[in-house]
Amino acid sequence: MNTKAYIVLANGQVFEGKSFGATGCVTGEVVFTTGMTGYLETLTDPSNYGQIVLQTFPLAGDYGIIRKDAESSKAHAVGFVAREWCSSPSNFRCEETLDQYLKEQGVIGVYDVDTRALTKILRDNGTMNARIVSFSGDAEKDIEAVQALNSIMHDLVLNPSLGNHARKIRLLEEIKEHKLENPVEKVSRSAASLQQENKAVFDAAREYGAVPVDANGLKFATYEAASAMAGGAKVVLWDFGARASLTQELQKRGVEVVAVDAATTCQEILDMKPDGVVLSTGPGNPADYESIVDEISQLCKSFIPMLGIGLGHQLLAISQGARTEKLPYGHRGESYPVKNLATGKVLITSQNCGYIVVKDSLPETVVQTFESVNDKTCEGIQYRSFLGTSVQFYPKTSGGRQDTGFVYDQFVNVVAMRHQSQLAENQE
Predict the structure, then answer these.
(1) Which pairs from 403-410 meet CB under 8 Å and 24+ separation?
(2) Residue 117: exposed, middle, or buried by beta-carbon count in 10 A (0-12, 13-18, 19+)?
(3) Mean pLDDT across the stretch 185-213?
(4) What is the DSSP letter of 71?
(5) Of 182, 193, 286, 396, which is least packed with CB atoms within 10 Å of its CB?
(6) CA–CA distance, 186 with 184 (Å, rounded to integer)
(7) Rounded to whole angstroms, how far apart are CA atoms 255 and 347?
């Protein structure tokens, strides 16, 4: 019975493993994440749209699938590679196995792979595209996979000594040139169906102690106490592929969150009369989204408080004249050290990015607030010309660190003050 799976990198190297999850053929960019937990959050993070995720931690699936922890309504990664996967997870919240979830979501899984060797290749050569061909062992079900394999793939993978060199080159070029078209449009508002009432979000978080803290560092006991922080403020979430946890962190603090899709214009947002705007995380190359950047640039002139996270951080920076560049292999995981340049304090952050803002390109109207300890890249910006701030890392995420929630606290305090100011003006 053939249950083999093959990972063909764009540089011609081939890794053989075994299949789990869905089977078939898929092409995508291979990226590695260093998180020891959070595989469900990774699979459902819209920022991983169209990617093949390689987990460096050797065991995946040990606590199963807990759907309440998902970051969106479905998986966005197209492939998942692990050294081992656990067929008998142990967790009181477990609903199903990782294998079952991958099958349901159509995500092709490969295990029994030397993930250390594969990660070293990506670290030395940078992230690259790859094609996975995976077999289920059922001849009828594998018809599509066999067809997808085709004669060129067959020459390269199964009978490399018999293959035609020119055909192999064409195949590798095909893998290398694979590109996603406008991924933000594909994932915008993919977490919208998970949004609940503010109090329900707070109460669910309270069961695990994941609630906001007051000025003294003490956790709020009730939603009513926590919501006083926002004072009834309304925030528009400009959704380029937001994680559910981003919305939930705002809701825990009593903010009314109105999500809009990526194609929304500046004027449409202004017509909603928000007290603040959050530019969300998302996938893709930020330099490709020129029309969105133009709308953000116009919005900045309104002086509405703005918070950018991940892709939103990059788009906001570009709108003010900065530029971005692709990292060799990205920052993906739950333990990236980031230094607060004002205090010197080092925070351990959760990240998932392939691009960064080039700090040498920052205009004089901004101040860099955070810096990566590992590679000294820009991790945060404060804007002087309007009430804007942004961070590259994910503040206080599920499946990750919880000590960066102050980013939301500071933003909510700003929008709350604006809200109160607007109310006072209306009463006059």
Answers:
(1) 403/347, 403/348, 404/347, 404/349, 405/212, 405/213, 405/249, 407/307, 408/212, 408/249, 408/250, 408/253, 409/212, 409/213, 409/229, 409/253
(2) exposed
(3) 94
(4) S
(5) 193
(6) 5
(7) 25
